[in-house]
Amino acid sequence: MNTANSNAVYEFGEFRLEVAEHRLVRGGSTISLTGKAFSTLRVLVERHGKLVAKAELMSLVWPETVVEENNLDRNISTLRKALGEQANGEPFIETVPRVGYRFVATVKTMRGDGATRGNGRGEENVDPALALRQEIRYCVTPDNVRLAYATIGTGFPIVKAATCFNHLGFEWDGPIWRHWVKDLTNEHSLVRYDGRGNGLSEWDVRDMSFEAWVRDLETVVDAAGLEKFILMGQSQGGAVGVEYAARHPERVSHLVLCGAYARGVYHRESAEAVEIRVALETLVQLNWAKTNPTFLCSVTDMYIPEHSTDEEQRWFLDLQGVSVSTANLVEFMRACDAINVRDSLAKVRVPTIVFHCDRDRIAPFDEGRILAAEIPGARFVPLASGNHILMEAEPAWKVFREELATFLRSGIGMPESAREETRPGREGA
After folding, report:
1. Between 310-323 and 294-303, two packed helices, what is the crossing angle to 10 degrees?
2. Where are the domains of the chain?
3. Contact predicate 375/319, CB 8 Å
4. How far apart are CA 234 and CA 236, in angstroms?
5. Does 129-422 match 9-126 at the fold level?
6. What's this model's pTM, rounded to 2 decimal places?
7. Which fold has domain 9-126?
8. Fold that domain 129-422 belongs to in CATH
9. Across the chain, which distance is largest between two alpha carbons, in Å?
10. 395 φ/ψ sector (left φ>0, alpha ψ -120 to 50, else beta)
11. What is the pLDDT of residues 285-340, one digit of tens each?
C-alpha cells in the first residue's frame, strides 16, 4: 500500500498507531496484529471521519491481489476485538451497511518526532463543517417502511427531499455533495433522508408511488420534530416538495427548487421523449450495465457532464451501484415518469425560488420555467450550466449559493426566532 505518510504516528483513545514501527500500542504494551489487519487499521485511521468503501479498502490493503470480501470482514472483526469500544461506549469502527467502514474516534496526528501536526492542539486542520458528524436515526411510515434520516448542524432547519440516487452514508463525505452540506449548514441545520427503496432505508417495499414519496417526507419531518422548515427539492424531489407545500403551507417557510419539474416524461407532450425513456428503462431492467459498464458512464454524463473531475465521475458511478437495486431503480424511473403536480402549483402559497440549469439533460429548462410561471410569486434564477447536480468548481454554484442566501435571509415566512438566526452579522455566522 502507499507509504506517503510512513513516519506518521496517530493517537486515539488509549491507543497509539506507529506507522514506521508497524505497531499498535496501548498503555506501553504492543498489541499483536497481522500485517493485513494493521494495514486495514492504518487506512481507516488515516481517513478518520470519512467513509471508506469496501472495494477501495480492499484495493489498498491487497493492492496486487484479488481477494474475497470475507478477508476484509475478518480484519474488521480482529480490529474490533483489539480496540473494544471508546470511553463513550461507541465502537471505533462504524459500519455503513452494504457500503464500507468509517473510523469515528477522534484522532491526533503526530509527526515521527512526536510533535503534533495541525492547529497545535493535536488536531488536524479540517473543514469545520465536515468535522461535524451526522446523526442518523430511523422512523416508520404508515405502511410500515423503515426510513433513515440524518441531521447535521444548528439553526433554522432545511429539509432536503429524497431523490433516486440517495445514500446517507455513502454521500456523507463524497465529492459531489460535500460542498452542499458545507454551505447549507453554515447558518442552518440540514435534514436529509433516504426514501423508500434506496440508501439506508428499507429496500423491500411494495409501494413505490409518488404518493408514497410524499408520505415519506411527512413521516420524516414529523419524526424529526420540525414544526416549520425550509423545504428543498431537487429533481423529482421538487415535485414532492411542491405537493407537500401545497398540502401543508403552515409547515414550510420557504420552498427551494433546483433542477425540478412538475411533469414527468409521460406528461410533457413529446412522443420521442417517451420512447427514449422507455428504451432507457428497458436497458436498466435488463441490467445492461453488468455486461456494458459504459452504460453507467452515460448516465453519469447526463447528470454531471461539466466541471467534474475523474474522481467525481468515478464516485457518482459508485453511488449508482450502492444506492439502489436494479429492480427498484426501474420502479423509481416509472414513478418519476408518471409525476404530474401541475395542478398543485397554483396552490403553493409559500415564498418560492426556482433554480434551473439552462442545459440540464435530466430536467429540461422549460420545466423550470413552468414551475416559476405557475407558482404564485415564485422567483426564477437561470443558471449557466449543463449539470443536473451543481458542482463546486463551476461558476453556477457561486450564483446558486449567493442567490439562495439572499432569498433565505429575507426572513419572509420564518418565525421571528428563525429570522434572528439567519440575519447577517449574527454571532457564530
Report:
1. 110
2. 9-126, 129-422
3. no
4. 6
5. no
6. 0.72
7. Arc Repressor Mutant, subunit A (1.10.10)
8. Rossmann fold (3.40.50)
9. 73
10. alpha
11. 777 666 666 777 888 899 999 999 988 988 888 888 888 888 899 999 999 999 99
